[in-house]
Amino acid sequence: MTTKTVVAVLFGGRSSEHAISCVTAKGVLGAIDGDRFEVIPIGITKDGAFTLSTADVSTYVLDGDALPEVIDNGSRIVWPDRAGSRELRVRDSGAGADSSTGTLRSLGNVDVVFPILHGPFGEDGTIQGMLELCDLPYVGSGVLASSLGMDKHFAKTVLEREGIAVAPWRTVAQHEWTANAAKVRAELEQMTLPVFVKPSRAGSSVGVSKVNDWAGLAAAMTTAFAEDDRVLVEAAIVGREVECAVLQGRPGEPTRASVGGEIVITGREFYDFEAKYLGAAGIELVCPADLTAAELAELQALSIRAFEALGAAGLARVDFFLTDTGFVLNEINTMPGFTPISMFPRCWQETGLGYSDLITELIEVALAG
């Protein structure tokens, strides 16, 4: 009898993208190959409790009135107490009970962790650092690449140094804005409108605003500072929005890039949270994108360059604007949206790698690394 690979799937988390991670968990847990993998589902509550999930994740759907959430069931995951041990344990207790006094039992050894977490405390190197301390293999980028990919300012700094075109930007710290907003505003007004104001460390377009008139700057800064204490003000780029999915190869094999996908905006200011996840009108996702062979080759080459410049691993989605003068990189996501209809798996499906096989590939790459 073949022993199954044990995969601990982490979802939820403390970030504003908690609900998106829950929906991703629904897709991954529903599609993972049960003949090859045994899953330990670990839901992380909004206040950071690691629970052994007993939820029916099939109920995790995005509804603007009731977003999915990991509910604290009283259990607590106990991670390995030393490097070299891969034993996970759980302390059981009833919901609302004291989780420090429940019965402790073993869940056995885990082979690999799949952290399908988005945003801070999951995609930013923090959970990766914890897993490194426990000496547990995991899917995706390591501490540095995760941290860089999460922080738009430093990612753009590294990618620009690599010679990859990025949108012009100015980073504003909250203390700088609080101390002298008028001075900062005067400097920003040297930029050409419109501009985008976005948190440096957030995803899923949370906290992002498009400013068409400088009168709207203060409100946009307030919205962005609610997510992070550093904010980017970026020049709007005129061009087609195209994305490319990247996969790390196994040892000795090259990094791979998918066909392109395109976000066609027909009736909204930009691809915001409501359009991405709540079915709001005005957006069409086209995959594969209508690109010439030369454009696709350049898109794939630039995506791989960006992936490798950050030292990324496992997977990433790289987003560009295709302008009249070429590609301009918007951002790189080291743990992109991973629902069955998200652009990352859609791009790989159109390239010939289905959703379930993509999950298998990511796990096997993590184990081979």
Describe the structure.
The chain has about 375 residues and is α+β, with helices and mostly antiparallel strands. It contains 11 helices and 16 strands. Strands 14-13-12-15-16 form a 5-stranded antiparallel β-sheet. The protein has a 4-stranded mixed β-sheet with strand order 3-2-1-7, covered by helices on one side. A 4-stranded antiparallel β-sheet has the order 8-11-9-10. The model has no long low-confidence stretch (mean pLDDT about 90).
- Strands of the widest sheet, in order across it, are 14-13-12-15-16
Q: Give the CA-based shape.
A: globular
Assign the structural class, choosing from mainly alpha, mainly beta, alpha/beta, alpha+beta, or little secondary structure. alpha+beta
Distance between the termini: 26 Å
Helix-strand blueprint:
Elements: E1 5-12, H1 18-31, E2 37-44, E3 50-52, E4 76-78, E5 87-92, E6 103-109, E7 112-115, H2 126-134, H3 143-150, H4 152-161, E8 169-173, H5 174-179, H6 181-188, E9 195-199, E10 209-211, H7 217-225, E11 230-235, E12 240-247, E13 256-265, H8 273-277, E14 283-286, H9 293-309, E15 315-323, E16 326-333, H10 343-351, H11 355-368
Parallel strand pairs: 1-2, 1-7
Antiparallel strand pairs: 2-3, 4-5, 5-6, 8-11, 9-10, 9-11, 12-13, 12-15, 13-14, 15-16
